[in-house]
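Backbone shape codes:
===
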Amino acid sequence: MNNEDNKNLILATVLSGLVILVWMVFFPPQEQVVDPNATEASGESLLPPVATEAPVTPLATATPTAPSTPSEGPAPRVKIDTPRLGGSISLQGGRIDDLVLRGYKEDLSDDSPNVTLLRPEGQVGAYYSVFGWVPGGDLGFEDVPGPNTVWQQVGEGSLSPETPVVLAWSNTKGQTFNRTYSVDEDFLFTVEQTVENTSGADIRLAPYSEIVRVGEPTDLKGFFVIQEGPIRQTGEEMNEFSYDDLTDLDSDPLWGASTEVVEVQQNGWIGFTDHYWMTTLIPAKDQPFSSVLRYEAGGDRYKTIARLGTVSVASGSQQSVSTQLFAGAKEWETIRNYEKEDGIYRFVDSIDWGWFFFLTKPIFSVLHKLNELIGNMGWSIIALTLLIKGILFPLAYKSYVSMAKMKELQPQMEKLKEKAGDDRQKLQQSMMELYKKEKVNPASGCLPILLQIPIFFSLYKVIFVTIELRHAPWIGWIKDLSAPDPSSILNLFGLLPWSTPEPSSIFFIVSLGILPILLGISMWLQQKLNPAPTDPTQKMIFAWMPWVFMFMLGSFASGLVVYWIANNVITFTQQYLIMRSQGYKPDVLGNIFSGFKRGSKDKG
């Protein structure tokens, strides 16, 4: 192995190590965080109401917070029953506050419950949506339905894709409010609010919708690589926030809460996003609205609010406004269809594609298509690896041909070294002339390595972020490609009757699974395509590198380790065949045995 090959291999080591170090710094092991502020019960926070004589302009920017008096005891509920959702709507406030995602389990155990997305007020982690009206003119808060107003269901039945639900409420001044809930086969609700005025006088009021979250989520991961918290599309740009960002907002003296308001002219939406789930308020795409972020410290409430402009309703007429609510899993195909078919602007960007979005988006799109054809995400990752290696093959071919030619030039390079003696400048000049004469580029081996780094990060992002990899099985013991290999050498991969260390344990790093071990072996075999370097330092680096990587990657998602193993195997095969085609015959077995012999001599 000549100096240039050694430099390229050292560069590969350094760059690959950099990948791992960056991952370990920014993406630490997952820990469950329990919210210390969560309480068993807390009432709806009450903020000062807007005066009923408020003019039209303040009306458009107000948010209702003074509810009607709730009834005693729990309010009746209307069942939600769709192929993908279960739960109910509370007639108190007409809140969508009880929602379970069918088809998604909390974990892989046989008795695991379905994922609960929304929870009613009073439960730990309360999380719900509210719709209503802000009063103006002669109307007061008691004249419009508030967060605690008890509605009446018109007719009977549950909410399903085939059967919408209508709620009604009337005040004492001649106005009747109707609210119609519809839901599709997936995760999109449509809430149409209608006010009918028979008072004999014109009225003014403004519709609103909001999502309320009490306390931070208890399963907040807090990873740099994933967006968790409020998210907003203004029609011009996407804004992402953490929960701490809301607590740091300027306080609004009118409402006594941290508030930020952005005026959106069209194509806007706002809500909360978790690792795999999301709730989003979506006004009509041509509907201007005030996009509001708010944190109420008194009740530890995070709110995302869509406040629409004031409407005037003449006596004898009615006005209606519709707002959509997405509440469900961030499935790429489902969200993309909402963007394409329902016109929800850039909705697919609610999935956090990261800095390398120009790579992560097409990589996932191809992976999704491969999975549709193959039906297994593990084999689809291997097929994707083959495809990526095929695309990069021209560069790899040029690199390996150059490496083979470099080996052919080894005798001439040795003569140049003898001739130059200690004159390193003369040696470098002579070598550059030789490279130029033989048309060899010693740096050509670096480009494929450099291209692998953004691909690695992009694939890591895809595997970590997209819900399609969550709980996706591969073969045998690999039941979740988004989680580390669950097998462990410490119990002989399940043959011994004791459990393996938890991820938080200091012993977890030595609890190697089958995949990380295969990764180390594949890297070690790849090294054996060339004889070990004569330089002691380089020899030591190469000897330790596969096993260091094996331990460092042990806690990576199984899907990423599968990709790396497949990449190593394909790279080994490509390099071996190309070198042989150029007249150089790698002696893999000879290099392995010679390494063992040198090791025995060193010990002796």
